[in-house]
Design brief:
Largest sheet: 8 strands, mixed
Number of helices: 12
Number of strands: 12
Shape: elongated
Helix content: 40-55%
Structural class: alpha/beta
Low-confidence stretches: none
CATH topology of the largest domain: D-Maltodextrin-Binding Protein, domain 2
């Protein structure tokens, strides 16, 4: 049997023991419930003994599972300690994030994060695209997408929700407000675009489609390479951008940007925290997940950004 497959099954076994249910283990690991059930069945076939008794939505360990549990627990603990020793970071967790996330989520809250992570230290690495993660040494990352993957675990932090925003001066010049008819945005003010070849975030075409408007091709559209530059252009009064609500709270709260249309939410996509199976039980990873959930939860309500309405766009992938 392949070693990686065996490790996956032991990690799943451990998660089911701790969660007390297949569904709870699936949520803990960031996978589907059928995937957890399959891994347990494969492990039971390999050991030729049942490990859990299904009781409605809960499971109970059999005597074989109880006998196996301490060996799995010790093995996973030693495996994690070995990884930490190899990389020389027993008390340091390296987190890879994109520039906009570093600036909006972490920079204003580094003191809070350090306190929440103690005694584990946190080290930030910046990456632009997911492909970059192959070549940079990191433990955990925050990525955009669906969160699915065979060789990692993930947990969603926030769903994709965007709203058109502009500087107050630009909004006043074009008579824009949170209740602006999307047709006005289509025919009037300059729209600033994020490079669709580099990023998978919602684009203007998807946003207009969600609000019932067709966007024709615009050969003269202004394309920007990353989200940070896009927001700077909006702050400078050079057009309207689609802004992430969790990245805009301070700018809107301070009046530097104002909503000029309805918010569109796509629940199946968003930002996820991603980690390898070997770190699933690392206490620093759990502290980081908890801190991120609490911090982003405070900014998770669209609130004033959704005053023009909130449209859910489900089941679409462009």
């Amino acid at each position: 049997m392949h070693a990686i497959g065996k490790l996956d099954r032991l990690v799943v076994f451990d998660a089911v023991l701790r969660a007390g249910s297949l569904t709870g283990a699936a949520m803990m690991l960031g996978v589907t419930q059928p995937a957890v059930s399959r891994q347990i069945s494969l492990l039971e076939d390999e050991l030729q003994t049942p490990l859990f008794v299904r009781e409605n939505s809960r499971v109970s360990p059999t005597p074989s599972a109880i006998a196996l549990a301490p060996f799995v627990d010790e093995g996973l603990r030693r495996f994690e300690e070995g990884l930490a020793d190899i990389h020389g970071r027993a008390d340091v967790l390296t987190l890879a994030v994109q520039p906009a996330i570093a600036e909006s989520w972490f920079a204003p809250r580094m003191i809070e994060l350090r306190e929440a992570m103690a005694p584990t230290s946190i080290r930030l690495l910046i990456f632009e695209r997911d492909d970059d993660l192959v070549t940079i040494g990191h433990d955990v990352s925050i990525r955009f997408g669906s969160g699915s993957g065979r060789h990692h675990r993930s947990s969603r932090l926030v769903a994709e929700s965007v709203v058109p925003v502009a500087s107050p001066q630009f909004a006043e010049q074009y008579a824009l407000g949170f209740d602006t008819d999307p047709q006005v945005l289509l025919n009037g003010p300059r729209l600033l675009h994020l490079d669709p070849m580099r990023w998978r975030w919602m684009d203007w075409r998807t946003w207009f489609s969600a609000v019932g408007v067709d966007l024709e091709d615009d050969d003269g559209e202004i394309i920007h390479p990353n989200y940070g530059i896009l927001i700077q252009q909006a702050l400078a009064g050079r057009g309207v951008v689609l802004g992430w609500h969790t990245l805009l709270g301070d700018l809107v709260g301070q009046g530097q940007l104002v909503p000029v249309g309805p918010a569109v939410r796509r629940p199946e996509l968003g930002y996820h925290i991603v980690w390898p199976p070997g770190l699933a039980r690392h206490p620093g990873v759990e502290r980081l997940r908890r801190w991120l959930s609490e911090t982003i939860g405070q900014a998770g309500d669209l609130g004033q950004l959704g005053r023009g309405g909130i449209i859910d766009l489900s089941g679409s992938d462009r």
